[in-house]
Structure of Deoxyxylulose-5-phosphate synthase:
Amino acid sequence: MCFYAMVHYKLHYACVLCRVSFKRFPLDGGAPPCPNCGRALVCAGHDFAPPPRRDTDAWSAVAAVLGAGLRYEGLEPCGCGKRPRFRPRTGAEVRARLAVAARTGVPVAEALARRDPAVPEEDD
């Protein structure tokens, strides 16, 4: 049995406008509010590593990933996977993947999740 299924871990929540993140337990009624601006925080997953507040380029990449409905998770949603999935870290990586998505017709979420934007990845 999975060890992580027996313990409740906090999830990372991010406010892209304020460029802050917090670890919170999931709420039944939705996402918790941002303490700075009051808007709902976006669930970023278990493996989210927030960039520094001053790095606006990296936060724009985070906004694109979270806006596409992706989260920063490992191979398994419970946390068993030791290797986190790829997510773009810079605006250039996001733009390259969005260009491939527009050119090939691949969904944006799938293009953002690829390590190499032109090559489809196989699930392990």
Notes: Strands lie at 11-15, 20-24, 42-45.
